[in-house]
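Try it yourself: sequence plus NAP, in.
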Amino acid sequence: MTTELRPTLRPARLFIDGQWTDAASGATFTTVNPATEEAITEVAEGGAADIDRAVQAARRAFDSGPWGRMPASERGRILWRIGDRIEAEVAELARLETLDQGKTITDSTKVDVPMAADCFRYFAGWAGKIDGETIAVRAPCLNYTLREPIGVVGAITPWNFPILMAAWKVAPALAAGNTVVLKPAQLTPLTALRLAEIAAEAGLPPGVLNVVSGRGTVAGAALVQHPLVGKIAFTGSTEVGRDIMRRGSDTLKRLTLELGGKSPNIVFADADVDMAVRGATNGIFYNKGEVCTAGSRLFVEEALHDAFLDRLQAQTAKLQQGDPLDPKTRLGPQVSEAQRAQVLAYVEKGKAEGARLVCGGERPPGRGYFVRPTIFDGVRSDMTIAREEIFGPVLAVIRFKDVADVLAAANDSIYGLAAAVWTRDIKKAHQTARRLQAGTVWINTYGLYDSAMPFGGTKQSGYGRELGRQGLLEYTQTKSVWVDLA
Ligand code: NAP
Ligand code: MG
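Structure, out:
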């Protein structure tokens, strides 16, 4: 396996100040292919000393490197070239992502990598268009604002969409003129490290993007606490989000937090059933349920419930599970053994609390961290599987009577990341969308994203927005300048 990797990933090392480097401690860890349980390669395990080295390099690049003096449009040209290079390397990057994460090669080739390329190009276009304002003040003065970069941004990413979550943070941070230290998830570090190399090949000056793989509780925590880091952009669990808020408070970090979810997917009896069945299936089984916006609570209106469940089960039975490198595969393995164990523990809890297992609920024989796509019916909103984020292919089906009933149940969650509504009644669709507590609502579709669309959570799903103009501005700060004219 190892020999198929490019030499710079054998072993994979830290990328700091434009150079590959070992961890100061010399420590390494092994990244594993979850479909085969085999080692892919060794990876340097960065610690606090390496984070400090990377942050110092990023600060130098910000203060005195070419990056800070470059016209903004030139930064945009470099970002555009990074997008082009990602696209040119789609086959290699998609394969790396699939090996490391277990997502299907179809998804990494058609979704993750092209969307990462698009994200760089989208923000490339913004680089030269970040304007301040002229403010009409009372004094005889000229007052204007500058939208300035924050400085060094720390990006901490999860393992479910490794290159895409890196792109969502790195591209807007760089477009706004910041420099970045990225700490990818230990389970899936390879595409982030390759991205650093690609960015350097595209002309990004040394120190502007540094990637330090390592443990969250060590390298991640060091990044959060580093006094020279101005902002942390984090995607991951709500639990770690809380820890980042606490630790970040010592140095008053600016934060954007994209956290967990337990998204309601609501099917009214007047829905287009074919579309809703596909939407419900993709909503939960896409990326084997390892999606923060997974439609893990499926609310079905009583009159449609039985027929819908039959259709859902039939559709689920068609999903081919297996080798994620096979283009026909629709469901790969969970990312790790621990993640599989967590998913199976939730299945047991669902059964113990009285939900009815319709299908799945077990691991298939053989190697790889697979879990069969699982549907529970007869779920009540107070059951654990309806309240906690499982982050696996487990769907909780809940019946409802009417709009008031379903809105109360759907909003009864600490999370508020996404939601969906399926109905042919346009009024009901928009009314429900307004009343759902969520950062994104899909109507008669599920799981659409665009680099131009602001994405993020409400309640304990986090705050701040990624992507779009709003996502860009999260990487800037405003300065007011006064000029006496009297
Ligand atoms: P996680 O455990 O929160 O980890 C996310 C990242 O934070 C990893 O790089 C992790 O490092 C690092 N980390 C862990 N502890 C840390 C600490 N104390 N200080 C600083 N960094 C730390 O989440 P995950 O298990 O990777 O991903 C699954 C979770 O992410 C789910 O709950 C899901 O809902 C959420 N998620 C949310 C979104 C969104 O946009 N809202 C998107 C994707 C995923 P290591 O793991 O390498 O140790
Ligand atoms: Mg791995």
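One thing you can check immediately is this: The chain has two domains: 14-259+461-481, 264-451.
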